[in-house]
Write a structure and sequence with these properties.
Pfam families: ATP_synt_H. This protein is an all-alpha fold. Helix content is about 65%, strand content about 0%. The protein is built from two helices and no strands.
């Protein structure tokens, strides 16, 4: 299998999953969790929620992508020894 790097099918699919999770979480946050209070307006609450959600999604995606790519090209290859009988 040739080297595919960032365009590996599994990595692209996982990226789409994380992006769609971020979109769904953003919509849910705007509908159910953004509230206006005397200390913060609803617009500012939405902005803060979006920053928190997308920072978390990016950090989770980055950790997952590093682990996924590390398994694609491991640093240490197993050494098989053949014992003579």
């Amino acid at each position: 299998m040739p080297y595919q790097g960032l365009l590996a099918p599994g990595l692209v699919t996982g990226t789409y999953v994380y992006a769609s999770t971020g979109v769904v979480a953003s919509i849910i946050m705007m509908i159910f969790f953004a509230k206006g209070t005397p200390n913060i307006s609803k617009c500012d609450s939405c902005k803060l929620g979006l920053v928190v959600i997308w920072t978390a999604i990016f950090c989770m995606w980055l950790l997952w992508a590093c682990v996924y790519m590390h398994q694609m090209v491991p640093l240490i290859a197993p050494v098989h020894s053949h014992k003579a009988k």
